[in-house]
Write a structure and sequence with these properties.
single chain; alpha/beta; Gyrase A, domain 2; Four Helix Bundle (Hemerythrin (Met), subunit A); Rossmann fold; 6-stranded mixed β-sheet; 12 strands; binds guanosine-5'-triphosphate; binds potassium ion; binds magnesium ion
């Protein structure tokens, strides 16, 4: 494979910028720039030169295969982090036949050299984009092979089941223990149940990666924008005594229980008075539908409106705002006041609990991508065909398909189609 290079550190000016190289031929490129190769994995200070011109004095690391991130001959150049230095070194590398890396190409090569499975590679991408402590922990768990180990163990058991089932086809029945068929079926059922347990966690791992949306909904003047501002701690949305103030969806990002959350304030729900308001209400209802949670706002100075009541459900949290005004309470609603601050601490706590229940850090490794759920779901489905498959050949085929589905998850079988999806998420230089 050709020599690739990329800046491993962020763009812009910095004290140090790390340029990474990988691929067969890295040693030659390094020697041309920095003189005789230093001892493996030992930092060495060198003057980098190209075509008779001094480029920078850099700390140089030579990381020969297989003991590198990619598993290939690799090198690191710790440069002074100025744009002109980086540009000059990149130009020299290109002149020496190296080429800039594609996004995720270093990790892709690490995968191809067996340094990690696909889920671990995804964990590294997640680790780089993790913004919260809970995301970091979930990502590190996956990068360290939490999911990989689980799936590898399942794949091993499935392979053994398949071998037993195939033995049943190959040999005369009298040569085999009589209950072999029943045992394969029982073991497959156990395996399927374990997989189904992980599937039952649903998309919480995905939600922690991606974040949740909470839509604030209610009648005009219920105080939705006032509540958004109170929760955000800044004047993100316009508040006024005029009904129909908010038209566009106003979003505020915050972190609740370690989960990144987008709080979306929306237009008040009612018969619209003009087409702009009608569009605002259409957007509000669309957001209500796609949101993970709904914060329904009623106000103490108005009777509960039908449009908002219709949105009640298991994913809805209900508040009665303007509790600073005289009121008789509202069943199932938390009294709050955006004006006096009453009940806001409790509201925040309820929102945190809801976010944690929906997307909080789980105890063990969880599925973190739709493709994980799809692959595991397929494996479970194939295994559930087993009891109905009368012929040993059909049973073996179901086991083989289940194994193939698991293989797509870890990237050990049938990987071509998923590679681009996985590595496309990376930034260049990783
Ligand atoms: N007394 C009292 N007034 C409030 C409270 N919260 C909001 N208000 C007032 O209610 C009015 C409407 O507040 P907004 O936050 O604009 O209400 P909204 O639900 O966003 O309204 P639309 O965007 O028009 O749908 C404003 O005059 C606020 O000052 C509260 O807790 N107590
Ligand atoms: K208003
Ligand atoms: Mg508003």
């Amino acid at each position: 494979m050709s020599v690739i290079f990329a800046l491993a550190t962020g763009a812009g000016r910095s004290a140090v910028a790390v340029m990474r190289l990988s691929g067969a031929g890295t040693g030659e490129v390094l020697a041309t720039l920095a003189g005789p190769l230093p001892a493996p994995r030992r930092a060495s200070l060198r003057l980098l030169r190209h075509a008779g011109v001094a480029l920078d004095r850099a700390l140089v690391l030579w990381l020969p295969a297989p003991g590198s991130y990619t598993g290939e001959d690799s090198a690191e150049l710790h440069l002074h982090g100025g744009p002109a230095v980086i540009a000059a070194v990149a130009e020299a590398l290109a002149a020496l036949g190296a080429r800039p890396a594609e996004p995720g190409e270093f990790t892709r090569r690490a995968f191809l050299h067996g340094r990690m499975d696909l889920t671990a590679a995804e964990g590294i991408a997640d680790l780089i984009s993790a913004e919260t402590e809970a995301q970091r922990r979930q990502a590190l768990r996956q990068a360290e092979g939490g999911l990989a180990a689980r799936h590898a163990a399942w794949a091993t058991r499935l392979t053994q089941l398949l071998a037993r089932q195939e033995a049943f086809i190959e040999f005369e029945e009298e040569d085999l223990p009589g209950d072999l068929d029943a045992r394969v079926e029982a073991d497959a059922a156990t395996l399927r149940a374990e997989m189904a347990t992980l599937l039952a966690e649903g998309d919480r791992g995905e939600k922690l990666r991606e974040g949740l949306t909470i839509a604030i909904l209610g009648a005009p003047n219920a105080g939705k924008s006032s509540l958004l501002n109170a929760l955000a701690g800044r004047e993100a949305a316009i508040v006024s005594a005029r009904a129909g103030t908010t038209r566009d969806v106003v979003e505020v990002r915050m972190i609740l229980a370690g989960v990144p959350v987008t709080l979306a304030d929306t237009a008040g729900l009612r018969e619209a008075s003009d087409e702009i308001e009608a569009e605002g209400i259409r957007r509000a209802l669309a957001r209500a539908e796609t949101a993970d949670l709904r914060l329904l706002v009623f106000a103490a100075d108005a009777p509960p409106d039908e449009a908002t009541r219709a949105l009640r459900g298991p994913d809805a949290l209900v508040v009665l705002n303007k509790a600073d005004l005289p009121h008789a309470g509202l069943e199932g609603a938390l009294p709050v006041s955006a004006r006096s601050g009453e009940g806001l601490a409790t509201l925040r706590q309820r929102l945190e609990e809801a976010a944690a229940a929906r997307a909080g850090l789980a105890d063990g490794a969880v599925l973190t991508r739709p493709r994980h759920r799809a692959a595991l779901g397929e494996a479970v489905e194939e295994l559930s065909r087993l009891p109905d498959a009368a012929l040993p050949e059909l049973r073996a085929e179901a086991l083989r398909r289940a194994l193939r589905a698991l293989g797509r998850l870890t990237g050990r079988v049938d990987v071509e189609q998923v590679l681009d999806v996985v590595f496309g998420e990376f930034c260049i230089g990783k």
